[in-house]
Amino acid sequence: QQPVQSPQAVILREGEDAVINCSSSKALYSVHWYRQKHGEAPVFLMILLKGGEQKGHEKISASFNEKKQQSSLYLTASQLSYSGTYFCGLTQGGSEKLVFGKGTKLTVNP
Amino acid sequence: NAGVTQTPKFQVLKTGQSMTLQCAQDMNHEYMSWYRQDPGMGLRLIHYSVGAGITDQGEVPNGYNVSRSTTEDFPLRLLSAAPSQTSVYFCASSYTVKRVEQYFGPGTRLTVT
Questions:
Q1: What is the pLDDT of residue A67?
Q2: Residues A36-42, mean pLDDT to the nearest whole number
Q3: Minimal CA separation from B18 to chain A, in Å
Q4: What's phi and psi for B83, nearest 5 deg?
Q5: Residue B70, helix vs strand vs coil
Q6: Distance between CA atoms of residues A10 and A6, nearest Å
Q7: CB–CB of A96 and B44 under 8 A?
Q8: Which of B7, B53, B85, B106 is most buried (most C-beta within 10 Å)?
Q9: Tens of pLDDT, residues B15-56
Q10: pLDDT at res. B80
């Protein structure tokens, strides 16, 4: 079952912030975040494991609320290079599948 | 290391033809998987493998076969191509699926006419 991502698309000006949400109806083991530029393969951003941790990578960070089965990706002070489609992928205990959402298209304009 | 390689990069098939999409990795990864990507649909899991000799179905397995005779290779076979299988196909690999990064290949763009 695909996770639900929101919003589907967002347009920012350089320097603005954005939040991308990912949710599931099933209990989660881990959440994966990837970014894909047009015509390229997805590129790994970060993984969060169950336990409600929050991770950060420069100006991109994420949280994982295990009880709510939700994760959020935070992009602060956005740069032009942040443009692309962001995918969350979810795994569950007892399964070896990594299932991705439909993606959120982020456009950062000058 | 070449990472994850996929061949061909582009392919055009006629309806009913069969073909094999190749995927290989040189990182000694146990876990490999195939996804298809269609506009607005995200990445959908076709088949995956947790090691040589072990494969299982993903979300959209119909019309596709896989095998894993070696750790390095994970080919995807289209038995009788249909226009609905027009898509971009990505192969990915990792040591495990739940706790580490997936490495994606560059993709194969397949058109079925």
A1: 86
A2: 96
A3: 25
A4: -55, -30
A5: coil
A6: 9
A7: no
A8: B85
A9: 999 999 999 999 999 999 999 999 989 999 999 999 999 999
A10: 97
Burial label, B18 (beta-carbon count in 10 A; 0-12, 13-18, 19+): exposed
Round to whole Å and give the CA distance between A52 and B106: 33
What distance in Å separates the CA atoms of residue A70 and residue B27, rounded to the nearest whole number? 32
Written as one letter, the residue type at B64 is Y
Chains A–B, number of C-beta pairs less than 8 Å apart: 63
- Name the token pair of A110: 């000058």
Tell me what percent of the residues of chain B surpass a pLDDT of 90.
92
- Nearest chain A Cα distance for residue B29, angstroms: 14
CA–CA gap between residue B18 and residue B85 (Å, rounded): 12
pLDDT at B98 over 90: no
d(CA A87, CA B92): 15
Q: Which amino acid is at B96?
A: T
Interchain pair B99, A47: CB under 8 A: yes
Q: How many Cβ atoms from other residues are within 10 Å of residue B7's Cβ?
A: 14
Q: Retrieve residue A85's tokens.
A: 């489609």
Q: From the DSSP assignment, how many helices (H) and strands (E) are in chain A?
A: 0, 11
List B6's β-bridge partners, or say none: B23
Is it the case that residue B87 has pLDDT exceeding 80? yes
Which residues, at least 6 apart from B62, have a Cβ–Cβ distance to it below 8 Å?
A: none
